[in-house]
Amino acid sequence: MKDVIDVMALQNNRREKRLPDYRSAPGHSLATNFIFECGIKLGLQPATIATAAIFYHKFFREADKNDYDCYVVCTACLCVAGKSRDEPVRPRDAVNVAHNSINRGAGPLELGEEYWSWRGAVAQAELLVLRLLGFSLDTPSPHKYLLHYLRSIQEWFPQDQWRSAPVARTAMAFLQDFHHSPAILDYRAPHLAVACLTLALHVLGVSVPLASTLEDDSAWYSS
Amino acid sequence: MSSSSTSPPSLNSIGDVNALFQTAKKYEELNVIGTGAYGTVYKARDLHNGGQIVAMKKVKVALTEDGIPLSTLREIALLRQLEAYRHPNIVRLLDVCHGGQSLERDQQLVLFLVFEHVEQDLESYLKRAPGPLSENRIRSMSYDILSGVDFLHSHRIVHRDLKPHNLLVTSSGRVKLADFGLAKTYDTEMKLTSVVVTLWYRPPEVLLGVSYNTAVDVWSSGCVLAQLHTRAPLLAGSCDSEQLHCIFRLIGRPAKHEWPQNVSIVVDSFPDYPPQDLADILPRVHPQALDLIKGMLVFDPAKRLTALDCLEHPYFTDHAPH
């Protein structure tokens, strides 16, 4: 099977051993973990995976969590996010990656009944997600804001100081992590970006050069 | 089945999508408004919004093995995105839903695009008009059409099929554009009905089958603007080649060096029509309107005015308010 993502190879990865067991997790407790794990395995861009998480939160803001299978909907959210951001996921890959993340060590699905029922369920769930979102797939993009803020703030730092603290990586990680919470839907993209940046600076104990010279006591990036 | 506790029950619950659609019935179909080349339009009542009357356009989308085609998904998402601007000359898209009953039958998905309902289109408006439209009415309608076109173009949408039939006229006389942005969605279902697609508003580059761009909409708008003055179509050809003859009888046969390359028809297959004076066809028309329409009906798409050029034409700017 050329070009199909090799799920076995992914599993032999050492990191895999530390990943959660979705089967024993109650309800939706690991839903967003599942989205991020599968998204990374499918090779999707971080912003696309974040979009899938947003679709998931929006979906279950409308629908009852007991009515739909969490992981089928999560897989469908990844498919819709991929299409909406021009980074399509092949259904076969999506199903294989999802199935193997749930059933660790199970090996790729045979093209049999179980595969087709999974695939049919994901296809249906994809339409359902679209219906509940009313095809409003345009999600705000805090990633872009954060990138711009990082770019401008970087110019304030001497090069070696910027390199010594992982500000960009930490801020991006905070932003990505916040997508685990449905609260991501409640804030505007620029606010999210600025919050992640400020938090990263605080956590790393980095102060922005020249900020203390501002007339106003509060720096421009703090509220 | 595997021992997984997640998959088997899930499949049943998702298979029950139809039930959700039925219980969540939001619209009640009233009657058919029209049948276009691409689908049927129904008048319906929005049961969740105090029985507001809406227009539902039924579009059939072929599902591929990857589910809903990427192009369709992106086109509809773009339409939803446009909604945020609430442009006054664009018909409101209120909702998108897919029908429950024929979901995935024959690998087809029935989509309903729910639009605001506008009583009449420009075609029937012109037919019903008791006499010539007033100069101010013509100017404001022309401006409305071009504003809508400019808005679409600035959002990288080419309408491709502008004509009085899909220009809607509200009770206060404002014009709104409808039926755009689904070019790729439609392409998968071109053979849906045998309704004849009118050629009267087609620009020469489309009739000749060469590549085209936003300039097609300016040509079509030019034809419609002329029609606002005369209340009759400007170029009423009966088939592709007849339509080209109509065009060249009006604007003259283009010079050889203007003729696009890679066209199967040679320029000499048309008689050497001399250009006609548009003023003879549009009597009593405002001289500035005449100049504007002439600038829109230019053979070479690159030399045609853009929608923004049109909006900045003295025909509009000399006559406030707008």
CATH superfamily of the largest domain in chain A: Cyclin-like
How far apart, in Å, are the first and last alpha carbons of chain B?
A: 68 Å
Discrete helix count of chain A: 10
* Count of discrete structural domains of chain A: 2
Strands of the widest sheet of chain B, in order across it, are 1-2-3-5-4
Range of helix content of chain A: 55-70%
- The percent range for strand residues of chain B is 15-25%
The total beta strand count of chain B reads: 8
CATH homologous superfamily grouping of the largest domain in chain B: Transferase(Phosphotransferase) domain 1
Number of strands of chain A: 0
Quick check: average pLDDT of chain A?
87
Distance between the termini of chain A: 54 Å
Q: Supply Rg of chain B.
A: 23 Å
Structure characterization notes:
Chain B: It is an enzyme of class 2 (transferase). The complex is a heterodimer of chains A (223) and B (322). With 223 residues, chain A is an all-alpha fold. Chain A has helices at 7-12, 31-41, 46-62, 70-84, 91-102, 113-133, 142-154, 159-164, 167-178, 189-204. Chain A folds into two domains: 7-133, Cyclin-like (Cyclin A, domain 1); 142-213, no CATH class. The termini of chain A are far apart. Chain B is an alpha+beta fold and 322 residues long. Chain B has two domains: 26-116, Phosphorylase Kinase, domain 1; 121-317, Transferase(Phosphotransferase), domain 1, CATH 1.10.510.10. A five-stranded antiparallel β-sheet of chain B has the order 1-2-3-5-4, covered by helices on one side. A three-stranded antiparallel β-sheet of chain B has the order 6-7-8. In chain B, strand 7 (167-169) and strand 8 (175-177) form a beta hairpin. The longest helix of chain B has 20 residues, at 135-154. Classes of the chains: A mainly alpha (223), B alpha+beta (322). The A-B interface holds A 22-23, 67-72, 79-80, 83-84, 86, 88, 90-91, 99, 102-103, 106, 114, 117-118, 120-121, 123-128, 130-131, 134-138 and B 1-2, 4-7, 9-11, 13-15, 17, 20-21, 63, 65-68, 70, 73-74, 76-77, 79-81, 84, 95-98, 103-104, 109.
